Amino acid sequence: MGDIDDLPKNKANHTALTPLWFLERAATVHPTRTSLIHGSLRYTWLDTYRRCRRLASALSNHSIGLGSTVAVIAPNTPAMYEAHFGVPMSGAVINAVNIRLNAATIAFLLGHSKSEVVMVDQEFFPLAEEALKIMAESKTPFKPQLLIVIADSSCDPDVLGHALARGAVEYEKFLATGDPEFPWQPPEDEWQSIGLGYTSGTTASPKGVVLSHRGAYLMSLSNPIIWGMTEGPVYLWTLPMFHCNGWCFTWSLAALCGTNICLRQVTAKAVYSAIANEGVTHFSAAPVVLNSIVNAPKEDTILPLPCVVHVTTAGAAPPPSVLFSMAEKGFRVTHTYGLSETYGPSVVCAWKPEWDALPPITQARLNARQGVRYVGLEGLDVVDPKTMKPVPADGTTMGEIVMRGNMVMKGYLKNPKANAESFAGGWFHSGDLAVKHPDGYIEIKDRSKDIIISGGENISSVEVENILYTHPAVFEVSVVARPDERWGESPCAFVTLKPEVDNSNEQRLAEDIIKFCREKMPRYWVPKSVVFGPLPKTATGKIQKHILRAKAKEMGPIPKSKL
After folding, report:
1. Residue 102 has what pLDDT?
2. Kind plus residue range of the DSSP H or E element containing 86
3. CA–CA separation, 75 vs 112, rounded Å?
4. Crossing angle for the helix pair 45-61 and 20-29, nearest 10 degrees?
5. Which residues are CB-contacts of 236 (< 8 A; sequence separation ≥ 6)?
6. Which NCBIfam families does this UniProt record tie to the protein (predicted)?
7. Of 46, 226, 308, 318, whose CB count within 10 A is highest?
8. What is the mean pLDDT of residues 197-206?
């Protein structure tokens, strides 16, 4: 090897990668710059750094550190943001909990993760209390050693009084017990865990996704590189911070010394208001949120936008029609794709300058593809899941999306079987089916479990949905398989109508939608049944297809006599 490779690592030239250093730098470089806005509340980066060190110190005073897990049940508030730094600064792991889960599921998460501390927003204390009761009465009872309630003046004051009477400590009082100059230390090993998040658990118990300091660091820097995000952005939190730690933007904003605008409840009116009043430059959201923005009532919008607003979207394949409408309104949308297991989005539909000259609808169609790997992801491909051989880049042959590299999770907590399956063949298996185009960009066609097989032919529910989204009456749509006596399965469309649409004659509307489909798609793709009503969603805006599949099954099979 020679002398050139004999130089050892030392403290001067090697340290574990961690996004925690970003906060220290922000407080040093821009101590008086606004770090966080929440209603009338304003913090600077120095304020935020001192508060996060107080949190780390207060946790350490209760022997919370390496090996501990701290669960946080809260919406997008300052405390939730601070927990992303303060918890790992103590050496512990942050478990940001989905606030839309029911008490039984939260009880499972808290018990499975052995969360020694539960921080809960005042609004969600009744939910947490019910979950803790379920845990206490289970076969393997577990009780956290510390319960912290985050007070909020917009919530029922009686709930706060009840929480304190139950032994909870109020968050600000807890912070007051900590040292704002707490001498936190980075992890000795960057493979140390920084975060724990749980998958939706739609077919079994949720799986705990474990993330490392190294992966979080790399994702935090990949985000702005991919997005062209420069120093000092004003970022609106429309994306839940509990979802993949806010796609790691919690840490990215500190790296860029930007401003976080917390949004407790996400509405189109609140988004437009923040753009007008706070100078928002960036936000991230699932396609369902974009859909609400483009269909917002005129009185809730502020158009034209005062400046170009950059948007990243992920969580589901966005319909080209929604991307087109967002562009028309002045939003510049970057389409990304990823999973909880890849720290959030790790694939991007990288925009090419030559697309600028194309018609807007063509641009939207190209931008609806999932794209190419992030700069921080080392491997991405579409393969035959049986042979692991890459599919041809012909835009038609389907395979499974697989990834590998530093932005893939450490693994699932206490689940060796799932780890073996997910990492088979040296790749992480996404479970998403896609094609690879000649230019190397991948495009999702469906989840493997969502493909509809009708008469032996595969039907992509995503492609049927994209066409249905262009119908003038359709606000939201999800297509799933319904049993069919003749074909085995056939598409069933669950539709939410736009508010202004007259729904007094649903049979006529259903017939009109089916006629529309016959003119736009192959006959075997056409939904044989249309069901109207609101669509069940997760907290991050994903439509819960497993619920719709169950409903379609309950409806019974389509009889052979029906065309």
Report:
1. 84
2. helix 78-89
3. 22
4. 140
5. 261, 263, 271, 274, 275, 278, 280, 282, 283
6. PRK08162.1
7. 318
8. 69
Write down the pLDDT at residue 437: 96
Buried b (16+ CB within 10 A) or exposed e, 502-530: eeeeeeebbeebbebbeeebeeebbbbbb
Q: List the structure tokens of 431.
A: 């479970």
Angstrom distance (rounded) from CA 348 to CA 358: 20
Residue whose entry in the numeric block shows the structure tokens 């119908």: 471
CA distance 7 to 513: 69
120 — pLDDT class (breaks 50, 70, 90)? very high
Cβ pair 72, 94 in contact under 8 A: yes
> What count of residues does the chain have?
563
Question: What pLDDT sits at residue 561?
Answer: 58
Write out pLDDT tens, residues 93-104: 999 998 988 888
Tens of pLDDT along 460-516?
788 889 899 999 999 999 999 898 877 778 899 999 999 889 888 889 999 999 999
Residue at 203: amino acid letter: T
Q: Is 264 exposed, middle or buried (0-12, 13-18, 19+ CB in 10 A)?
A: middle
Please state the three-class secondary structure of 247-275 as a single string.
HCHHHHHHHCCCEEEECCCCCHHHHHHHH
Domains of the chain, earliest start first: 33-185 (3.40.50.980), 216-377+442-447 (3.40.50.12780), 452-554 (3.30.300.30)
Higher pLDDT pick, 139 / 263: 263
For residue 401, which amino acid is it?
Answer: I
Residue 65 has pLDDT above 80, yes or no: yes
Q: Tokens 């998403």: give the residue.
A: 432
Cα–Cα distances (Å) from 23 to 19, 26, 448, in that order, read 8, 5, 40
Helix (H, G, I), strand (E, B) or coil at 309: strand
Structure tokens given for 452: 């509809």
Q: d(Cα 149, Cα 170) in Å, to the nearest integer?
A: 5
